Here is the input.
Amino acid sequence: MQGSENGKLQLTNGEKVIRKKNVGGWRSAKLLLANQALATLSFFGVGVNLVLFLTRVLRQDNATAANNVSMWTGTVYLCSLFGAFLSDSYLGRYAACALSQLVLLLGLVLLSISSGLMLLHPKGCGDGKLECNPNTTLGIVIFYVAIYLVALGYGGHQPTVATFGADQFKEEEKDFKSAFFCYFYFSLNVGSLFSNTILVYFEDKGQWSLGFGLATASAVVGLVVFLVGFRGYKYVQPSGNPIPRVAQVFCSTIRKWNVSLKEGEALYEVQGSESAIKGSRKIMHTDEFRCLDKAAIMTERDRCGDPANGWRLCSVTQVEEAKCIIRMLPIWVCTIIYSVVFTQMASLFVEQGAVMHSYISGFHIPAASMSVFDICSVLLCTGIYRKILVPIAEKLSGNVNGLTELQRMGVGLIIGMLAMVVAGLTEVERLRRIVPGERVSTLSIFWQVPQYVLVGASEVFMYVGQLEFFNEQAPDGIKSFGSSLCMASMSLGNFVSSLLVSFVMKVTDGPGWIPEDLNEGHMEKFYFLIAGLCALDFFFYVLCAKRYNKCSQVGETAENVSKISYPEEVVMMDRV
Here is the structure.
């Protein structure tokens, strides 16, 4: 390795890596946290009241609007996988973040223009009192194009900015990384706080164009803040497309299915301190999924042929990368049901609040603004966790982060289940206080506060735990993919919620559990159904968490190092 004294340029195995003094650290991370808050404000300026826009402006019924919001929100987080793929494979974190924000901004501009010129007629309609004129097909098409551009942009931004923020710290600064993820979710909720109060108020009054315009302005400021830190960021180069790497492992395994490791031989690994995957550390060998180790067995043909042919011979690190993905998947699947709980805040919680008494001394409280209690709960619980629970748990367990990531996710799942039980009990009480002939119950909307607070508390444990867990456990070459699994869990949670709503509407008698007139339905049964699914999911989660084995990379532990060989007669494979 060659290097210069001023630290500006280093050459490692022929690869250029830019190293500047005074880059990264909390100075750069703070800019990314501010960017996260502003991008979130712009996104939730659209998403938090979307269900009311669909019912009031586009005249959709409650079940259809709830399904459309779930599908849209699901698409947002599904796009995180695409953004993570571009980030890890080709663009790098910085370029992927910048591109995603440009797409987000384009969608917001288009939404502001289309809603103001085509959908909101007469002026002031969509406030729950004045009906809007029938919409044109062109206006509806442009509206959906706009909101799905917002979904693509924000979805691609989330996993890349989270991973980019973690990149700003050294590998040994794990306590800083843990704090960053905590503050990352804190910043997300700070942005949500403004959109759920100020923007929701304007939109609920029928000033949709003003609300969308402010969301657009926030996206512009957020992009400027992000670009300002260009010279101070620490950059990690993309590691190439991981899909062929994983496919090569399975292909090589199938080809060598009848081959066994001979006594005294070792599995193949490249020479040197770096792995065959560009920019990635080597991963220690594990005994799980031993059938995949066949891909790293060197045959006579491999010794005589081209060792760079990954479709016949894979390094231990490449095999372990595939194993890491397989290990994480069961944990990830168990988080999907929790995301069903989370998505209710943007759909059924809002619809429930819309038929509750929402006036205090003549002042109307928008149903969607009740999510401010969720946000305040997140902000409060984040501080309580970092300043009180972590020190106590550290003394009891010896873990510097308090509870482990898996333990925190389990706690979040339990609290989420309790939130659904409380929401169901609130709906039972709301139905008891219905006045014949009246659409709105006499039950105060503040009865929803406990369910929002519980969901917020559960997020601190579940989503922050997920971000840390998947980012920590994902190998270097797929760090953004690891962060995107958290968002993909939200995505599938929204799709599952949509399927559950459709299912119960088909199989339940009469008007169904979630009819157009909620006073004729039984939404509490839907909440109790989700709570039951959470209890079942928790049982399987505990089983998966107990069996999970950590992915260990070189530099973290020296275990199993004897199981890997570095044969001198084999030249280093070309990087995948």
Strands lie at 2-3, 9-12, 15-18, 267-268, 359-360, 363-364, 564-565.
